[in-house]
Structures are given as structure tokens and as C-alpha cells.
Amino acid sequence: MQIRTNVANGMPEITGFHEPRTGSVQYVVADPSTRHCAIIDPVLDYDEKSGSIATRSAEVILAHCRRDGLIPVWILDTHPHADHLSAADYLRRRTGAQTAIGARITEVQKLWRRIYALGQDFATDGSQWDRLFEDGDSFEIGALRARVMASPGHTLCSVSYLIGDAAFIHDTLFMPDCGTARTDFPGGDAAQLWSSIQAILSLPPETRLFTGHDYPGPDRAAHWESSVASQIDGNAHLRVAGEAGFVAMRQARDRLLPMPALILHALQVNLCAGRLPDADHEGRRFLKIPLDALGTPPWSISTNN
């Protein structure tokens, strides 16, 4: 499902694409004047039961760009996702757009290199991307000015992208009824997430916030746009007494959450900007699944947030 938001003069044209299997939301953010655009957090379709890779979601985005006369110039990761494989490399090869992620990806690469036992030959300098963004960096999408804001907590290297009147806040705040992101992945930190959320909520109240996931239920369809004001007024996980209350709530909730089904499949690809493992001499590719790497999960609760 895709939904285009209204475009104000000089503001970005934003189209969201909800991928229902993982609940992920992918974005195309376009400059109305030059038709240059950025693609944020694209999904590479992967079936863990068969090991099959497909590019259906990415092709929908490419078709949208062709139909609207858009020229991709950036492919932006907000963080290395744990619930889906990234299509960044596929889209880079198809479009020639630059890839980028937060600079602290190097710390995440070092952490997961140990978990996967990838060896010293695995590059942990972020060179898999064309650019690594520091907090406060800026860049252009055509005539649009974009700014990077570090948003750690869900992961060490999470960043938000501030473009015009919009902020792409990935796994920090979900829609108000769904609350906030988990912080129990390696390198996650509930206190850091609280600080990141406060920075987002200090933006102007009318700032449009675009989340990285939505998990619709029987009572509503998928949504992914809120505002600073609506999050302050109604986020289900912020009805607590300050940072201490939030950290206690988030840590208690996280202890009950199972790991995402694709975390061990996805991270080894997403740490490489969506590049699949090299093929062997027979053209076969293999994912590496470390056993007992993430502790003993609870088995009774299946919610994602």
C-alpha cells in the first residue's frame, strides 16, 4: 500500500510504501522543483522458509519514480534493520544513487562481527556505504536541504533525517497508539532512546513525523504519519513519570519480547548496505546463523513493539 502526502510550497513530496509482511514503511522523498529524490529504508523481499530473495518491493519504488519522473540521488538507511533485509544495494546498482547511514555504523559492525565470527577481513569502517553521516551533517535532495540528527537507543547508530517540515524518525516513535521502539538489541539503550525521543519532540509542534513501522490491527489500516504535537498528546509509552519511568517501562516490556524472526538473517546483509554474501564457485550464497547468540527468548508474547 502506498500513500502520498500533501505537498506545501517548498516542502518535500513524500510517498510511503507499507510492506505488510514485516510492517516496514519505505519512503520516497522528492523535491517538487528538480524531481530529485531520496529513498529511505527500502525493503528486499526475503522468505526465510525457502531462503528466496525477491525485489518486488524495490521494483514498486522504481516504478513510482519512473511514473512521476523522479531521479533518485540518495538511498538512506536510518539504521541496520533487524526485521527485513535492505534493498539499498539493489537500488544503488539500478539507479546510481549514493548510499548513506549514520557514522556509528562502524561500532555496530564491530559488535556484530564478533557475534557472526566474520573474521578480520570483514570491513568495519563503513566503507560499504558512500557516505557516513555525523550528527548535524547536512546534504541536499535537489533544492531541498536535509539535516541529520543522531537518534540512538534502538540501535547505536540510528539517525533521523529532517527534510523540510518532515522528520523520518525510524524506530524511535511509532504511531501514538503503538508507542516506542524496543531497546534490547545488542547496543540498544532505553535511556538513550528517551533522550532521542525528547530531541524529536523538541522540534516544532507541526513537524510531520514519519515512522519506520506500523503494525495495523483489525480496527485500523496502516498509518505512518503523525506530528510532534500528536505524539506529545497521545503516545501510549510516554504516559510515564520522566526518564526513569520510561526506562523502567521500556526495559520491563523488552524482557517479554521475542527477537524479530529475521534478525540473524537480516543483520549480516544490512551491515553491508544490503549486499548479499559472495557466491561460491557454484554460484550459491549462504547466510550464517550463529546459535545461542542472543540469549534465551520468551515464547509467550508475539508483539513487535
Helical proportion, percent range: 10-25%
Rg over alpha carbons: 18 Å
Q: Kindly name the structural category.
A: alpha+beta
CATH class: Alpha Beta
Main beta sheet strand tally, sense and closure: 7 strands, mixed
Low-confidence stretches: 299-304
SSE pattern, N- to C-terminal: EEEEEEHEEHEHEEEEEHEEHHH
**Shape, per Cα inertia axes:** globular
Strand adjacency order, main sheet: 1-2-3-4-7-9-10
- Overall pLDDT score: 93
What is the fold-level CATH name, i.e. the topology?
Metallo-beta-lactamase, Chain A
Please work out how many helical segments DSSP would assign. Answer: 7
The tally of beta strands, per DSSP, is 16
The CATH homologous superfamily is named Ribonuclease Z/Hydroxyacylglutathione hydrolase-like
Strand content: 15-25%
Our count of domains comes out at 1
CATH architecture: 4-Layer Sandwich
N- and C-termini, Cα separation: 21 Å
